[in-house]
Amino acid sequence: MESSVFSSVPVQVLLVLLLGVSECLSLKITRLSIPSFVPNGSDESVLMDCEYTYSMKEDKKLVVKWFHDDDPNPVYQWIPELNSKLYSEKFKLEEDYEVPAAAPYTKFRAINIQKPTTELSGTYKCEVQSLEGSDTMEDTMTVYALPTSVNLNYTIADDVVRVVCEVEGVYPLPEMSLFQIKPKTVEISPLNDTELEYVLDDGAYDLEFSTIIPEDELPRPSDGLTFFGCSIEINGTEYEKEIKVPYFPNPVAAKQAGDDSDDTNASSFLKNLKYQADQRSLEVPSLFSITNKRIYFCRRNGRSLKELM
């Protein structure tokens, strides 16, 4: 008598093989495609795809759903057997988007978002169900917005210097740092004890990133020109920006009316500061003047005219 091919195969191995075959035939998501970062308001649509395997025989009443964050209402739902599709108006989906060369029970599985905006950032989950089982997979997408403006300035009051970096219209919150460049060097020294204040307005952040420095801890004017700087990065993108402004102590040249040599010294000091800035290709305040034997300067952003006593 000829023995069976499987007679010498242990029962445990056969069970494993059968379970493996069963698993291969069961409903399962095999690949989820979601872009990690996309620009705000892009003319290009954002395609999210959810690939899965299923059994035509076993997986009856197939349903495909997409969800956003913790919202229990689906962004999109498709029931192949009923040829039924539901769309969320919030997400501006392309209706009847069809995956090229896909089978009848998979061709409408993907979603295509038109002109994505920052409020559509978050976690997206694909859920596929049938009477025999279900599977889910999720990933995150960030719709980023580049800043509409970035300004760096400082104020001096009560022997304290407050350095502020202002950013408007950015999403998500960027990575930021404040730093100082001491006279006659290019070495960057981080400014610590920073504070971040922000508001979310119309899908983007307006923020202030600041620190406070005792005036007596900063270099003296006689040491040369000191600069404050602010650097900004948006994680996951190529956006990086760094700006610098020169620091002018209060006073720049403490001279009252009386001695013409005082004006000469003050004017020479300012020319020296401008020369150092030019050598480093850095910006300086746009206006210097000596009026009534006192020195004034206009900040680079033009928002404040301050008398330096």
TrEMBL record:
Ig-like domain mapped to chain residues: 10-142
Gene3D superfamilies (alphabetical): Immunoglobulins
InterPro entries: Ig-like_dom, Ig-like_dom_sf, Ig-like_fold, Ig_V-set
Any Pfam family matching the protein: V-set
Keywords of this entry: Signal
Domain of life: Eukaryota
Signal sequence, start to end: 1-26
Protein name: Ig-like domain-containing protein
UniProt organism field: Caerostris darwini
Lineage: Eukaryota, Metazoa, Ecdysozoa, Arthropoda, Chelicerata
